[in-house]
Design a protein that fits this description.
Dihydrodipicolinate Reductase, domain 2, alpha/beta, 2 domains, 9-stranded mixed beta sheet, Rossmann fold, 27% helix, 10 helices
Length: 317
């Protein structure tokens, strides 16, 4: 069965998803596209061999849909897809608030449709290996996490997302729109968060669009994390993360990119490193192996492609 896929909104992130789908092993075809900018929808459709059409026609045509609109449209479109029994991939952040997100969860669960949210860090090789290391009994109790995430403000250059400085469409700025990735991965690695405090700034002058945020997260296991999220104007700098994790008997450092290494050290053992696959795109998944190294030795972290398999496989119950 060939899975028929549609895209609602055809901006930068839609083009990125379509590139990964092009390299997916899943039997699929992009057949439909919709965008409020008709010219952009036509250009995207031409690029992927699809047809531009309105929302209702698209949802009636496809088995699976990528909802890559601004955040304020997510609930309406996810609900519409679920009501038609369409598999749905929704970009992050899912919603402005927990109530809206819960309504979307209820809609897809009631419809029984396959669904996925664009929180991709859990599938990256470095984070998969970090989770394995943190689960090792030798690590001891988790103590603290230092997490910094920065990128240039995404209203220009290849992002070109002017809606991200409109709170009616984006909700908030860097903490919600970008660092939702970071909050998700920290809870996945470290467990549930019990309390949060912090401060935000609006340096670029867009009301309710924070571009500097510093948060403290207290976990149920008594660990604590600091998260610094920044939107700057250094256009030559790629989007980067810097993460350090301390346990009683384990130190971890990673940069959160598939091409970057992960470094760790257990008490009484030498510092060890796994290299990322520098020929791999950023969203590939990896098979991680437990390895040991001699001092100074570097080992390779093999990556396997899993480009959106979960989101396009509409054959699963």
């Amino acid at each position: 069965m060939t899975v028929r896929i549609g895209f609602i909104s055809t901006g930068f992130i839609a083009r990125t998803h379509s590139w990964f789908l092009k390299h997916s092993a899943a039997d699929h075809r992009i057949v439909a596209a919709h965008d409020l900018d008709a010219d952009r929808a036509q250009a995207f459709a031409h690029r992927v061999g699809a047809e531009a059409m309105d929302e209702d026609a698209l949802l009636d045509r496809v088995d699976a849909v990528f909802v890559t609109t601004w955040t304020s449209e997510h609930e309406r479109l996810v609900t519409a897809a679920a009501e038609r029994g369409v598999t749905v991939f929704c970009e992050k952040p899912l919603a402005f608030d927990a109530a809206s997100a819960q309504r979307m969860v209820d809609a897809v669960e009631a419809a029984g449709v396959v669904n996925q949210v664009g929180l991709v860090l859990r599938f990256m090789p470095q984070f998969l290996h970090a989770k394995t290391l943190l689960a090792d009994d030798r690590a001891g109790r988790l103590l603290a996490v230092s997490f910094r995430d920065d990128q240039f403000i995404p209203i220009q250059s290849h992002y070109g997302s002017n809606w991200r400085v409109d709170p009616a469409r984006a909700g908030r700025g860097t903490l919600l729109e970008h660092s939702i990735h970071d909050v998700d991965i920290m809870q996945w690695l470290c467990g549930p968060v019990e309390s949060v405090s912090g401060t935000v700034r609006e340096v670029h002058g867009y009301p309710r669009i924070d571009d500097v945020a510093v948060a403290r997260l207290d976990f149920a296991n008594d660990a604590v994390a600091s998260l610094t999220s920044i939107w700057h104007d250094i256009f030559d700098r790629p989007s980067l993360r810097h993460i350090e994790i301390f346990c009683e008997n384990l130190y971890l450092h990673l940069d959160g990119e598939a091409t970057s290494p992960i470094t760790w050290q257990f008490t009484g053992e030498p510092l060890q490193t796994l290299e990322g696959d520098r020929k791999s795109p950023g969203s590939r998944r990896a098979e991680c192996r437990r390895v040991r190294s001699t001092p100074g030795q570097r080992l390779h972290l093999p990556c396997r492609r899993r480009a959106h398999r979960a989101s396009v496989d509409a054959r699963r119950p």
